[in-house]
Amino acid sequence: QVQLVESGGGLVQPGGSLRLSCVASGFTLEYRHIGWFRQAPGKEREGVSCISGSDGHTDYADSVVGRFTISRDNAKNTVYLQMNNLKREDTAVYYCALPKYSVYVCSPEMFNFWGQGTQVTVSS
């Protein structure tokens, strides 16, 4: 079955850390662009971070720069999102996704293959 499966979410206190994983099954993530996105209640889905499959270039939303790190392990067919110094405003459902096209554009409307999401809640 071709799918993306996210995991690693949970409840964490402000200032804490989580590492999200996005595992692909049924296909290889190697050489594929991958994005992490999030959606908070009542808000639109927004881009968090992307990584290029061609040259490893990464992009981050301004709100997470210096706190989040995207990486990939092709041997494990997995992309990670390390999240440090979490803030209450990071609370959301986090999704990984693949883009529609081979062009690398880190924007939600350019992605059309989504995982089911994992909930991240930052609260004391």
Plain-language structure description:
This protein has strands at 3-7, 10-12, 18-25, 34-39, 46-51, 58-60, 68-73, 78-83, 92-99, 111-114, 118-122. It is 0% helix and 48% strand. By secondary structure, it is an all-beta fold.
Q: What structural category characterises the helix and strand content?
A: mainly beta
Counting H and I runs of at least 4 residues, what is the number of helices? 0
- Beta strand count: 11
How much beta, percentage-wise? Answer: over 45%
Low-confidence residue ranges: none
The overall pLDDT average reads: 95
Q: Biggest β-sheet: count, sense, barrel?
A: 7 strands, mixed
N to C succession of SSEs? EEEEEEEEEEE
Approximate shape: globular
Terminal CA distance: 38 Å
* Radius of gyration based on Cα positions: 13 Å
| Share of helix, binned | under 10%
